[in-house]
Specification:
The structure holds two protein chains of two kinds. By secondary structure, chain A is an alpha+beta fold. Chain A is built from 14 helices and 21 strands. In chain A, a hairpin with a 4-residue loop joins strand 2 and strand 3. Chain A is globular. Chain A starts with a strand and ends in a 5-residue tail after the last helix. Chain B is α+β, with helices and mostly antiparallel strands. Helix content of chain B is 34%, strand content 25%. Chain B has a five-stranded antiparallel beta sheet. A four-stranded antiparallel beta sheet of chain B has the order 3-4-5-6. In chain B, strands 1-2 form a two-stranded antiparallel ribbon. The chains are: A alpha+beta, B alpha+beta.
């Protein structure tokens, strides 16, 4: 194992509407990268339970006003329309529920308040629940809205009543809403390859289990361009028969389903390629993945045929690592005490084609060191390049490992959820595998129409 | 691939039941190593006269253990006959002693050596390439000399909260019966290749150690009902509590609709509603357990079973405050287990591996 390189976040600036900066919160000054789709929205509707106590209801009212008009400190949040250059009316609407066990009623309240659901965006006030609960009101409500093709934002009662964090949560919440409306808040200033002749696309690929039934899985494929412009998502359920699992045929069935997902995505992608050639970098999530899934992915990629436009496919497996890194010389201190945190973006080479990338620790963007964690252990990713799964036209020059690692670090910069954090612990391509899987499973259980366009074109899962 | 003898089964059989050999499955070609099952012998373990006989014996025990678990189990005779018909598939080869496959073989060898030692009770189940050890307060006290006990935060924790470490204290009976906080150390072998200054590859295997504290819960529904009854509480308090029902494949999530002393009515995600009587619950040990993650379950546990089930999180926060603090704790933990729980040496196929307490510095 040895030191390989360090990606300095100052070289990974974000591009907003009218400027660039290292920090995501500069969206307040420079506006969003693209608001074309989001501008078609007419209303944001804040849905709340009429049985909430009086003080929480008052907070709902204040939240609605704050989203509309911003707060006193305009640098923190000047209002939704002011940031995103939109003209959306924001109002709150009650629903009547004695508990939170009936998400259909919440959707009904939304529908009655909105003449055209395609032009309304719901924010639903719900109690805070553990994100690891498959059967929680959070997932059930989101699935109910998605079933009707409506993306939604949940805002918790706890956060409404949290005086310390409430005002800091307005900007990140608004970024999530804007993204789910189809807007692009910011992208990366620079791509991976500087060429007008070749386009680079990055694909997130993952398989997740049903949290309760092992024979059910969900596979997904999502595509970004090399600047982080969102393209689309394809996701689908994969059910494996018990007999297949016993006989070992499940790998074939899985491979077949993944190949079908990949082919659909690549056909769709080929239509988006404007240059003569394109290359594809696949990030596949190593979460929840065993050798069965890995073999299935390898088999599916073997079947993949390069189109006339896509000249090369590179494959990286990305997994959260259990290696603890302690930097004896770390300058980052908290309350005068040394932390030992490593610098974000540091890469170590474990062996040929296997790297360790630090995604939490400290960074220097402007003045002094700052951390994207304040306590706890820093995390890092193990990234393995799988050359045996790659495909390459003989006329194309190989991309080196460093450029492929740049694709992972770049997409870890695309954090549309917490703007205070300039680097996520994992890239956007693999970060949401559980949300995509659980919501897709719920949609399958509810027999939702798989052709709903929103499910492909919006980042409903963030 | 053998039809009647799926490779993962052969590997499981060897690792679980063979006495003197361990196995690792390579599912794809890796550098110069072909896909297949790699077997190595363990020094100091007496098994059958040769590898083939050892594999067959392990397979016979393994197939026997699968009977009655449901699903289709091919016959052991067919499996063994298939192995015998393909002698060309079994060959003796030399692999690099620091190669990728070795890291898995070492893990399996270590696990096997702990299983046959007096430390077998501290092994905990974990899927994948990690080996997990759980150490209770009493075990820690035997491992750490008196003058060094201040280096282990769990001991101070257990002195102050004995009911969370297995102690039975009046008013805290639920904690002692259903929960126990332990130290958990996880080990994994990582294969690493570094190009040295002469441009040649230097291969090594590192042991990756991580450490945390865990609250072990044994929330069998039967035992909970028994506890409520014996402490004079209403069994009906269980209404709304979430219960995991273990299935052959996976888990069903159920909600207690109604609970009485002699039966429980459950409504499950699989859309089934079922009534389970108390005798069935007693006989199906561990099949129905309370899922403590859901709010209603947690409220129930905190109110009627044990009110400080999250106290161990302070311990975790203490050792994982930052990299520096964690590194110091980890140094103590490695001292704690090396030579006492995990051996300093492992010999595989006459190659001696030494585990040394040296942290990797880059």
């Amino acid at each position: 194992m040895k030191y390989f390189t360090t990606f300095d976040i100052k070289n990974f600036r974000l591009r907003f509407g009218t400027g660039t900066h290292v920090h995501p919160y500069y969206i307040v000054r420079y506006g969003p990268r693209d608001n074309q789709v989001a501008r078609s929205y007419k209303n944001i509707i804040v849905l709340f339970n009429n049985n909430l106590d009086a003080s929480t209801k008052k907070m709902v009212q204040m939240f609605t006003e704050d989203l509309k008009n911003g707060i006193d400190d305009r640098r923190i949040f000047p209002g939704f329309n002011a940031i995103y250059r939109t003209n959306i009316d924001i109002e709150h609407v009650p629903f009547d529920l004695s508990g939170y066990d009936n998400p259909e009623k919440i959707y009904e309240a939304f529908k009655s308040a909105c003449s055209n659901v395609e032009k309304c965006f719901p924010i639903i006030i719900l109690p805070r629940v553990h994100k690891g609960l498959y059967d929680s009101i959070y997932y059930r409500t989101k699935a109910e809205f998605l079933k009707h093709g409506v993306t939604s934002q949940v805002f918790t009662i706890d956060l409404l009543n949290d005086k310390k964090n409430y005002r800091w949560s307005l900007l990140p919440t608004s970024i999530q809403i804007f993204t789910k409306m189809g807007g692009i808040p910011y992208i990366l200033e620079q791509g991976i390859i500087d060429s007008s002749d070749i386009q680079v696309f990055i694909m997130g690929l993952g398989i997740s289990y049903h949290p309760l039934y092992k024979e059910q899985r969900v596979g997904y494929v999502m595509i970004f361009d090399q600047s982080g412009n969102w393209k689309f998502l394809e996701a689908g359920g994969i059910t494996i028969e018990n007999t297949d699992m016993e006989s070992g045929k499940d790998v074939d069935t899985l491979a077949e389903k993944i190949a079908s997902l990949l082919n659909t995505a690549i056909t769709r992608l080929a239509n988006m390629i404007q240059t003569r050639h394109a290359i594809l970098i696949i990030h596949y999530s190593g979460k929840e993945i065993s050798s069965r899934e890995e073999n299935a992915i390898a088999k599916a990629l073997q079947e993949l045929k390069l189109s006339q436009k896509i000249l090369a496919v590179y494959v990286l497996k990305i997994k959260k690592s259990d290696v603890a890194i302690y930097d004896r010389e770390s300058p980052f201190e908290i309350n005068g005490s040394k932390t030992g945190y490593p610098e974000i973006g540091t890469v170590f080479k474990l062996k040929p084609d296997v790297y360790l990338l630090v995604t939490t620790g400290y960074f220097i963007a402007d003045r002094g060191e700052k951390g994207n964690i304040w306590r706890g252990l820093p995390s890092n990713l193990i990234i393995s390049r799988h050359r045996e799964m790659e495909k390459m036209d003989k006329n194309i020059t190989d991309i080196n490992d460093e450029s492929l690692l740049v694709s992972v670090f770049s997409l870890s910069r695309l954090n549309y959820v917490s703007v205070q954090n300039p680097v996520s612990s994992e890239p956007i391509t693999t970060r949401y595998s559980r949300e995509i899987a659980w919501l897709t499973l719920r949609l399958l259980e509810r027999k939702a129409n798989p052709e709903i366009e929103t499910l492909r074109t919006r980042m409903w899962f963030i | 691939m053998l039809r009647e003898c799926p490779s993962p089964w052969v590997v499981s059989a060897i690792n679980q039941y063979a006495k003197s050999i361990v196995a690792s499955l390579l599912t794809r070609q890796y550098q110069r190593l072909q896909e297949g099952i790699y077997i190595a012998s363990l020094e100091g373990m007496r098994g059958e006269e040769n590898v083939s006989a050892e594999v067959k014996k392990a397979l016979t025990t393994y197939f026997g253990s699968r009977e009655g678990q449901g699903g289709k189990t091919p016959s052991v005779e067919k499996c063994i006959s298939e192995l015998d018909k393909n002698p060309h598939q079994i060959q003796s080869i030399q692999i690099p002693s620091t190669g990728y496959v070795v890291s898995n073989l070492l893990k399996n060898a270590l696990e096997k050596s702990i299983k046959v030692s007096e430390n077998r009770n501290i092994l905990c189940h974990k899927i994948g390439s990690e080996l997990c050890l759980q150490l209770e307060k009493e075990r820690l006290e035997t491992l750490i000399p008196q003058e060094m006990r201040h280096t282990e935060p769990l001991l101070a924790f257990c002195n102050n909260n004995s009911w969370l470490c297995g102690g039975r204290i009046r008013g805290k009976e639920g904690c002692g019966r259903f929960f126990k906080v332990v130290k958990e150390i996880t080990l994994r072998f990582q294969h690493v290749v570094t190009e040295n200054i002469k441009g040649k590859n230097d291969e090594r295997v590192y042991v990756i150690v991580s450490s945390t504290y865990r609250r072990i819960s044994t929330l069998n529904l039967y035992d909970i009902i028994d506890f409520l009854t014996t402490t004079g509480k209403d069994v009906g308090l269980l209404s709304g509590v979430r219960v995991n029902k273990r299935l052959k494949r996976g888990t069903d999530l159920c909600k207690v609709v109604e609970a009485r002393e002699n039966q429980v009515r459950l409504s499950c995600l699989s859309r089934k509603e079922e009534v389970v009587d108390i005798d069935t619950l007693r006989s199906l040990d561990g099949q129905y357990t309370i899922n403590p993650t859901y709010k209603h379950s947690r409220d129930f546990i905190e109110k009627y079973i044990c009110d400080d089930i999250d106290k161990h999180k302070d311990l975790i926060a203490e050792i994982k405050r930052n990299s520096r603090v964690y590194f110091e704790q980890l140094t103590n933990d490695v001292k704690l287990i090396l030579g006492k729980i995990i051996p300093n040496n492992i010999t595989l196929d006459n190659v001696n591996y030494q585990i040394r307490q040296e942290f990797l510095q880059v």
